[in-house]
Amino acid sequence: MSDFTLANGTEITFDLGQMTYGQWLGLFDTKESDERSDATLARVCGLKLKDLKALPFPEYKLLFQAFLKKTREPLQDPNA
Q1: Which pLDDT belongs to residue 67?
Q2: Residue 4, CB half-sphere, CA atoms under 13 Å: how many?
């Protein structure tokens, strides 16, 4: 099941395993370049960077909101 669907019908399932803890922190660090932060988000979304940057701003905001919601969900315990 997808986490977010773009207006063009592309289904996005966030793969948080594609991001390190340091990259997560970099998303909110003003010293981190926008290019690196965007590349991290694109990778987690399974998108090419150019496709992420081509999104209309309101759709990008909704995508990022869905991403943040996903990061707040509890992770499944692999030892359970």
Answers
A1: 98
A2: 21
